[in-house]
């Protein structure tokens, strides 16, 4: 009969000792089981040319495929380095938005039938990104250009990419909005990436994993993307007449 008061006393002591106390607004007893998971950081706001590049960088480092869908315009293109032979397997030596998102799904989360997702991903652009006028013919003041020094590291599989990623960004009220991204009308308060020119290039890379050289191989950004894509994915339509559309000749 004396065990009941003792039990109540023990519960009271545990409540006082717990960091959260006996809260009526949440399961304070869970605190006794160990530390809480760290709060997940939020992506940077794509409210400027630099902001949307930082959003892309954040998505890679956090493997966030949902936020990644909001970064690119509907008519987005990724262009391979002109002398990067891996680009020959893709129409116009370029990737569409759908293919970019397919790459992210495979590299960030799912892997492919032959290639698991990397154990570690770290993408870093230089700290001070400089915004320039868009050099493409026919671009307006709502289009900007950023050449970002790039370091990408994949671990298992092991690759390193260095060089320049040249981004062309567009303000929301001049952009071709991506399908599925809700908006009430022209939005001048956010920015999108409408073109990504790869200016990184390693040497001798073949996306066949059987030919990989470990522990680390220098590659181009396009070669890493090709590793997680196949030419059998749906290819995009002929390039439309958006301002500055072109196959990169850099």
Describe it for me?
A hairpin with a 3-residue loop joins strand 5 (143-155) and strand 6 (159-171). The longest helix has 15 residues, at 3-17. The chain has five helices and eight strands, in the order H-H-H-E-E-H-E-E-E-E-E-E-H. The chain is of the alpha+beta class and 250 residues long. Helix content is 22%, strand content 23%.
Strand % is 15-25%
Shape: globular
Using only C-alpha atoms, the radius of gyration works out to 24 Å
Briefly note the structural class of the backbone: alpha+beta
Main sheet record: 8 strands, mixed
- Relative helix content: 10-25%
Order of helices and strands: HHHEEHEEEEEEH
Low-pLDDT residue spans: 7-39, 203-215, 232-250
Mean pLDDT: 78
For the secondary structure, the number of strands is: 8
Amino-to-carboxy terminus distance: 86 Å
Total DSSP helices: 5
Outline of this structure?
The protein is of the alpha+beta class and 250 residues long. Helices cover 22% and strands 23% of the residues.
How are the elements arranged and paired?
Elements lengths: L2 H15 L31 H14 L2 H4 L3 E8 L14 E3 H14 L9 E6 L6 E2 L9 E13 L3 E13 L19 E10 L16 E3 L1 H7 L23
Parallel strand pairs: 1-7, 6-8
Antiparallel strand pairs: 1-2, 3-5, 4-5, 5-6, 6-7
């Amino acid at each position: 009969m004396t065990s009941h008061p003792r039990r109540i006393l023990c519960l009271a002591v545990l409540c006082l000792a717990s960091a959260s106390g006996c809260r009526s607004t949440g399961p304070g007893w869970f605190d006794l089981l160990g530390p809480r998971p760290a709060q997940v950081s939020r992506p940077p706001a794509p409210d400027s040319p630099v902001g949307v590049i930082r959003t892309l960088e954040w998505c890679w480092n956090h493997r966030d495929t949902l936020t990644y869908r909001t970064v690119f315009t509907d008519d987005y293109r990724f262009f391979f380095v002109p002398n990067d032979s891996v680009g020959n397997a893709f129409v116009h030596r370029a990737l569409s938005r759908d293919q970019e998102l397919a790459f992210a799904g495979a590299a960030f989360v799912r892997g492919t039938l032959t290639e698991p997702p990397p154990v570690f991903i770290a993408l870093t652009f230089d700290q001070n990104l400089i915004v320039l006028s868009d050099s493409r013919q026919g671009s307006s003041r709502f289009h900007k250009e950023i050449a970002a020094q790039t370091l990408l590291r994949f671990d298992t599989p092991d690759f390193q990419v260095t060089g320049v990623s040249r981004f062309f960004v567009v303000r929301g009220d001049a952009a071709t909005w991506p399908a599925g991204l809700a908006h009430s009308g022209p939005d001048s308060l956010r920015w999108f990436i409408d073109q990504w020119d790869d200016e990184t290039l390693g040497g001798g890379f073949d996306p066949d994993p059987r030919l990989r050289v470990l522990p680390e191989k220098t590659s181009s950004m396009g070669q890493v993307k090709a590793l997680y894509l196949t030419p059998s994915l749906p290819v995009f339509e002929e390039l439309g007449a958006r301002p500055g559309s072109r196959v990169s000749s850099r």
